[in-house]
Specification:
Strand content: over 45%
Strand order of the largest sheet: 1-2-25-24-23
Distance between the termini: 40 Å
Number of helices: 1
Radius of gyration: 18 Å
Structural class: mainly beta
Order of helices and strands: EEEEEEEEEEEEEEEEEEEEEEEEHEE
Length: about 300
């Protein structure tokens, strides 16, 4: 499908050839979001300890260094951002100051925050996991499922929303039927949960994708037709589009081994942008494939949805 051009039901031409638009060389690029107000992309490089911003039209690029490992971020209604670090969730105004809002699992020293996405309720939904890297950024083996899912509100309150344990929490997508789609990367599974509208507690977990043979599930984005685009990390080298029941609609080849997160942006939200990682990739391979860790773009023939905002 990599070179295929097609016409969608709405008559929009799609070009499935992925283009490297920014050679970020991220160690672990993650948590990509589109800020429609500033017409730019924001994402983190977890191991590199950087937050990036890029205008994909002008290629104006900003980078902020962080003292702690920034693991995910989202946009705020007041114009700033919310950023998750190893343990803390902070408010950020695109400067060098991060203002602590909440601490998650302070009693679990081996755990860290991972995927975090703003939900339609204006809360920051965030998952934890056993830390898979040391203080110097070198990889550490995950030995047990200690990840949980939480919900942080604008007043700084944090509550657990499920008793289920995860190896690596990933993907947070809200369907138009009121369900949550999430994943456990280590188990190579995506799940659909019911959401209690009063308490936001998750129930009725169903496996919708299991054992897909290309890599493992990482971050996702939803398009305007209600389909989910899931990045296949750990050598998957592709992104797949599934419906909310887990049926695979298409698989798009990517010129990187480890795509990590994706977001619709640009004019009419018609471009799908994709971050990638080079964490644990062999140095010789990187010399021959310097695009690993870069930012990519495709025109999938469908548009996305605006990012939810915190607050």
């Amino acid at each position: 499908i990599n070179d295929e051009k097609l016409t969608t039901k709405k008559g929009t031409e799609a070009n499935m050839t992925a283009e490297l638009i920014f050679a970020a060389a991220n160690i672990v690029g993650e948590s990509l979001v589109w800020d429609v107000n500033r017409q730019r992309l924001l994402w983190v490089d977890i191991i590199g300890k950087f937050i990036h911003a890029l205008d994909p039209k002008t290629f104006d690029h900003q980078r902020w260094e962080t003292d702690d490992f920034a693991t995910s971020l989202g946009l705020r209604r007041d114009g700033g951002a919310v950023v998750a670090f190893t343990k803390k969730i902070c408010l950020w105004n695109y400067d060098n100051q991060f203002h602590p809002l909440a601490t998650v699992e302070p009693e679990l020293s081996e755990n860290r925050l991972n995927e975090g996405v703003i939900g339609p309720d204006g809360a920051f939904w965030v998952g934890t996991m056993q830390n898979n890297f040391a203080a110097d950024g070198n990889p550490v083996e995950i030995t047990k499922d200690t990840g949980r899912l939480y919900r942080c509100k604008a007043d700084g309150s944090v509550n657990s929303i499920s008793e289920d344990l995860f190896g690596i929490t990933n993907t947070l997508i809200w369907t138009n039927t009121g369900h949550l789609i999430t994943a456990d990367t280590l188990k190579n599974e995506l799940y659909r949960y019911d959401i209690d509208p009063a308490t936001a507690q998750l129930t009725g977990r169903r496996i919708i994708v299991s054992g897909f043979e290309r890599g493992l599930p990482d971050g996702s984005a939803m398009d305007a037709d209600g389909y989910i685009w899931n990045c296949r990390v750990a050598g998957g080298g592709c992104i797949m589009r599934i419906d909310p029941d887990g049926k695979v609609d298409r698989v798009i080849e990517l010129p990187c081994s480890c795509p990590t997160s994706c977001a619709f942006g640009g004019e009419d939200l018609s471009t799908l942008y994709i971050t990638s990682a080079r964490f644990t990739i062999d140095h010789e391979y990187l010399r021959a494939n310097p695009q690993e860790g870069g930012l990519f773009a495709i025109k999938p023939g469908v548009s996305g949805l605006l990012e939810h905002r915190f607050g």
